[in-house]
Design goal:
Blueprint: E1 4-10, E2 18-23, E3 30-31, E4 34-36, H1 43-55, E5 59-70, E6 75-84, E7 97-103, E8 112-113, H2 114-124, E9 132-134, E10 140-141
Parallel strand pairs: 1-6, 5-9
Antiparallel strand pairs: 1-4, 2-3, 2-7, 5-6, 8-10
Length: 142
């Protein structure tokens, strides 16, 4: 079985708020725009495609901020800082997404996983150290 990869984008607006999406499945949790890679697709291409599919934005990838290994799913998650044209407004453009919005870092919506919070914190930390992480079992913040 091929190794799974996923990729997500950290997109911020002029106020420093981060774009999050609310899923229509599972715990209906808030998450970064992103998803699983497809065959013959790089992690960067995955992040760009997923953002376009989920919130209708064409983004540029600026920087890799972390690689997270999830042993429960034997999967690597790549996280990138991405930029979008500020005149473009995100909108739910997939049945998977029921809502999307820019959120203040001190008032992130719930439910949200600690994994999502960690990726945001790591990406926006200018003094971040290593960019490879192993995920511990998720805890839900509700």
């Amino acid at each position: 079985m091929p190794k799974l990869i996923g990729a997500a984008a950290i997109i911020t607006n002029d106020e420093g708020h981060v774009l999050l999406v609310k899923h229509s499945y599972g715990k209906y949790n808030w998450e970064l725009p992103g998803g699983k890679g497809e065959e013959r697709e790089s992690a960067e291409q995955t992040a760009k495609r997923e953002v376009l599919e989920e919130v209708g934005l064409t983004v540029g990838i600026k920087q890799l901020t972390g690689v997270y290994y999830d042993p429960d799913h034997d999967m690597h998650h790549f996280v990138f800082i991405a930029t979008a044209d500020p005149s473009q407004l995100p909108y739910p453009s997939s049945p998977e997404i029921v809502e999307c919005r820019f959120c203040s870092l001190d008032k992130l919506p719930k439910p949200i996983s600690d994994f999502t919070c960690k990726r945001i914190e790591d990406a926006l930390n200018q003094n971040r150290k290593p960019w490879f992480h192993t995920i511990t079992p998720r805890q839900w913040i509700e």
